[in-house]
Amino acid sequence: MDFMTLIAIFDSTLRYATPLLLACLAGLYSERAGVVDIGLEGKMLGAAFVTGGVAYVTGSIWLGLLAGTAASIALSLIHGVASITYHGDQLISGVAINFLAAGLSIVIASAWFGLGGRTPSLPPEARFQNINLPLADTLQNVPILGPIYSELISGHTILVYVALLAVPVTWAVLFRTRFGLRLRAAGENPGAVDTAGVSVVRLRYYAILIAGLLCGLAGAYLADFAANFVKDMTAGRGFIALAALIFAKWRPWQAMGTCLLFGFLSAAAPYLENKSFMGIEVASQFIDALPYILTVIILAGFVGKAIPPRAGGQPYVKEQ
Amino acid sequence: MKKMPRWADVALIPILNLLIAFIISGLVLLAIGKDPWAALGTMIDGSFGSSRGVGYTLYYTTNFIFTGLAMGIASHARMFNIGGEGQAALGGLGVALILLAVPWPHWTLALPAAILFGGLFGAAWAFIPAYLQAKRGSHIVITTIMFNFIAASLMGYLLTGVLKVPGKMAAETAKFPEGAHLPTFHEMLAPFGIEFSKHAPANLSFLVALLCLYVFWILVWRTRLGYNIRAFGESESAAVYAGINPAKIIIITMLISGAFAGLMAINNVMGEAERLIHNAVEGAGFIGIAVALMGRNHPIGIFLAALLFGFLWQGGAELQFEHQIPREMVTVIQALVILLTGALDNMVRRPVEKLFIMRYKAKGL
Amino acid sequence: MATATETGRQETAALASPAPAIELRGISKAFGPVQANKDISIRVEKGTVHGIIGENGAGKSTLMSILYGFYKADAGEIFIGGKETLIPDSQAAISAGIGMVFQHFKLVENFTVLENVVLGAEEGFRLTPSLRKARKLLTELAAEYELNVDPDALIEDLSVGHRQRVEILKALYRKADILILDEPTGVLTPAEADHLFRILEGLRDAGKTIILITHKLREIMDITDTVSVMRRGEMTATVKTSETSPEHLAELMVGRKVLLRVDKKPAQLGKEILKVENLRVVDEQGVERLKGIGFNIRAGEILGIAGVSGNGQSELLEVLGGYAEATGKVSLHGEELDLSGAESDAQSRRLKGIAHVPEDRHEEGLILNFHAWENMVFGYQNDPKYNKNKILMDNKAIWDETQAKMDRFDVRPPNPRLNAANFSGGNQQKIVLAREIERNPELLLIGQPTRGVDIGAIEFIHQQIVELRDQGKAILLVSVELEEVLSLADRIVVMFDGQIMGERLSSETDERELGMLMAGMKQGADA
């Protein structure tokens, strides 16, 4: 494996990791506030569809992004009404949202474009442009660092950088702001937040709105990347993001690390599969399943127990 | 404190939920420029209008009864087994392995073996999440989701590898031996002079499913195990007071749940495809969630809800041909049913309760 | 130290302004048919420690919850510093300068002390300035009031006493002038409690007003300036602590109740059935709930355990019932029981002839969504007589037996198909009693037999218990109703803080003496 292959693998690692990271951070906000979200998949899918459709019709990926994010936030609000306002089961609500998005996206897409549930291909001008960072071309020929800068770091679409930037921002919001402190407290001991005179309900709604926003970006990224929307295009990424969230123990930097790792598994898969290591042939399906297997091992607590936010999954009902 | 009569709880609320789900679905159809009434007519006609339609409807119903029972038994212990999809897939593997391993002379011998292996494999796939929940506190919802994906990968691996017929392209096993063929409705009803479509996949498994409904009822309401499961599900603290071991109940319940899901394979794998194909479960595991929620975890409710979804599934296919409405419309209805009966139950329940309490007060009760 | 406190007390008395820190006028609050607070009026002077004492369920906590904005009073007004103040929520209470230290702390376990202190009272969007300010203030408060606690420690690593200090710091950080503490010493060791009182005295001397809710007379006598006594939702008296005595307070607290008549022959004591030695229970938080207690019960005897709830009685019942771990020795008929708490042991206790009417019939004794007939075998579902074979239950046998038991215990309505939830409290309790007593046990554990039960059923339930005793069975009766223990038990053990404060024959004691023991006053009661 030569150097340029390695650069190519890392480059696509970044591309694979971006939607995972955005969805994972979405889950992080929601679950840190005490609202378990297994509807990440659905929100991404909904956003991907709306982005694909609107970007095609308007010719603007930005309008597509806006509309896609709005769709994702709308799905978040359904989750909020069910699980925060009506104290419904957060898991069931999440399951329902996944199906709702899976169904509605196809039904509407078919009626809209008549392509059997796809959206038409986006022309290049209705997609995000790759951003060439300053001096990328100039430095291209510098050995080692040149390709790393110009091929790997430079030349991605805006959402890749947004996702990477969202990590320190999330860290700062959670651990360096008043809002973050309250949000985390709402997921650990909502009673403490309530007796301190702060509304748990409002905090949790903020959290799921942010989750909707981030899932929206993740979905838009997918639609832009594939240049259209196709049936079930999230392909379980929402659940891998959920797995990454558990793997990262609900912490932003670790979330980035995990998403890059899972992204790397996808990027490296074509180079790994059907090669034998120590006499054992690596099946591509094994690499696909690896994130889930690793997560189960973490959940089982055999390698550093993953302890979720303590009040996660429980609707907050004021004590009486 | 009586909030509402029993009939309101078991019938009125689910019907109201369903009604709202249908109204919203109708609005979706209107929004995409389709006539909801015409669509409904097509669906009814397509699923009940011919023996072929009925055959398909009952075939899907059979699948959903099994997965609904899987969800239902878990719910009685307050477990949310979202892994029906993976357990049913593994059940298919068990059925395929045993049916391919032996040159079965007749279905009467093959069926018990298939039931045993389907159930066993499904239960085995539920065992690890169950054990991790009972002994290590790992949340069963997350682990069963993970196990669905792991199952999909495993099945993909096997069907493109060791189980594939050499030289063929399709990711599927060889056809099962003739002797493992389950009678279809066409064959079952012919001796009685009833003409039933030859092309419908409904088969003897439907009767097994009905039998399982009965077994479920006996298990939950007539056996000591069922008593313990329900007691644990209602109140863990009371169960502990009564000397019921929570870990044991969690594991046993999940094994039964996985076995019900695995049993689905006698319908879709043994009865219909007669080979193991890729993605044989087709989401039936998830529909089980909606079926159990709607059916209030009772066999009669599960049967009716499974029939409803069988109708939707088959009718949905007809929608595609007649009105160019994608069959994903059914997924939308399924989502709304889960949302309304599961998560937004309080939205309907609270006002209904209020009405009844007002009535009780008015009557001076 | 003592003299400094004395002068402090005199000074505050002299400075007491006409406008009290808090004045409540005519506060009433009902929960359904239960009148939790009845027309309560009280003045709490500024710069004093005001004690509120009363038995369980006297309405103390409800009153304080109204003051902190958790409940809305049905009637009445609240004046803070002489001004009428509406307190619709916690935020309003905090703005009015009220701080509350709950019995169950409201702390985020994996946050640091600093983070917990500033939560909800941060200044501005950025956290760092708030934390810096809080750190400075904490250092000052630590020096001033002995409120030392490491600002960077995680709550989960702190002892209970330190956690409580964090709660006090939270209130002070919010500039509370009025501090309410709800049973603050319930979870503290004696040394921690002493430390807490020094802190409270310091705060009082600095001009803060403190309301101390407790059921412990010693605390009232030690630290309060004024004390109000609550009984059955009413404020029965407010007196200066210096002008009263523990005996007088105990009397005000329990009242002069007319004993319920329980027809009861003198006990015919047989041989020893249960012997408990050096029983210890440590809970999940590592707090010792039972601190090496011992007692015995003989056949034909009712042993009553008196005490305010939360002093170890529940743990005792759980251990004997077979579903909590303990160390020590418990023997039934001289045969030692396994105390390792393996969960299925609740079954083996039943097989050995120990029946258990648990304290909380909703959480433990019944499955509310089960039919009456299903509840009638709850805990005994393995008994062969309720089963056709190893798998199927014999519902017909259970049904018939339920009907017979419902008749004998006069359960109304006598309908086995009704869900347990649909019976009144008294009839629910009769179902549990019928199930347990009709087993004809060697030893009956019974907790709070008449909690939430109507008068008519109380008498019936008491008769059943006495009848069982007269059949030569041993009975362990746990009740927070002193009156009930006195009228039913032959011998009484008083529990306080996981220990046995004293043992009395019920014929040779009275409510006053027991009340003193329940409040942890040993010397007073012995004198």
The shape of chain C, in one word, is globular
Whole-number radius of gyration of chain A? 20 Å
CATH topology of the largest domain in chain C: Rossmann fold
State the domain count of chain C: 2
Domain count of chain A, please report it: 1
Strand ordering within the main sheet of chain C? 6-7-8-3-9-10
Report low-confidence residues of chain C grouped into runs of 5 or more. 1-16
Assembly type of the chains comes to: heterotrimer
Number of separate strands of chain A? 2
| Rounded average pLDDT of chain C | 87
Percent strand of chain A equals under 5%
What level of helicity do the residues of chain A show? 55-70%
Q: Class by helix and strand content of chain C?
A: alpha/beta
The CATH architecture term of the largest domain in chain C is 3-Layer(aba) Sandwich
Largest sheet of chain C: 6 strands, mixed
| DSSP summary, beta strand count of chain C | 20
CATH class of the largest domain in chain C: Alpha Beta
Kindly report the average pLDDT value of chain A: 90
**CATH H-level name of the largest domain in chain C... which superfamily?**
P-loop containing nucleotide triphosphate hydrolases
Q: What is the alpha-carbon Rg of chain C in Å?
A: 25 Å
Subcellular location (chain B): Cell membrane
GO molecular function, one term (chain B): transmembrane transporter activity
Membrane topology (chain B): Multi-pass membrane protein
Transmembrane segments (chain B): 12-33, 53-74, 86-104, 110-128, 140-159, 202-221, 249-270, 276-293, 300-317, 329-348
Q: Can you offer a commentary on this structure?
A:
- The complex is a heterotrimer of chains A (320), B (365) and C (527).
- By secondary structure, chain A is mainly alpha-helical.
- Chain A contains 13 helices and two strands.
- Chain A has one domain (3-132, 141-234).
- In chain A, strands 1-2 form a two-stranded antiparallel sheet.
- In chain A, a hairpin with a 2-residue loop joins strand 1 and strand 2 (280-281).
- In chain A, helix 2 (40-58) packs antiparallel against helix 3 (61-85) and helix 11 (237-247) packs across helix 12.
- In chain A, 55% of the residues are buried.
- Chain B is mainly alpha-helical.
- Chain B has a domain at 67-284.
- Helix content of chain B is 75%, strand content 0%.
- In chain B, helix 14 packs antiparallel against helix 15 (328-343).
- The longest helix of chain B has 30 residues, at 107-136.
- The relative contact order of chain B is 0.20.
- Chain C is α/β, with parallel strands linked by helices and 527 residues long.
- Chain C has two domains: 2-254, P-loop containing nucleotide triphosphate hydrolases (Rossmann fold), CATH 3.40.50.300; 272-366 and 441-526, P-loop containing nucleotide triphosphate hydrolases (Rossmann fold, 3-Layer(aba) Sandwich).
- In chain C, helix 15 packs parallel to helix 16.
- The model of chain C is unreliable at 1-16 (pLDDT under 50).
- At the A-B interface, helix 3, helix 4, helix 11 and helix 13 of A face helix 5, helix 6, helix 13, helix 15 and helix 16 of B.
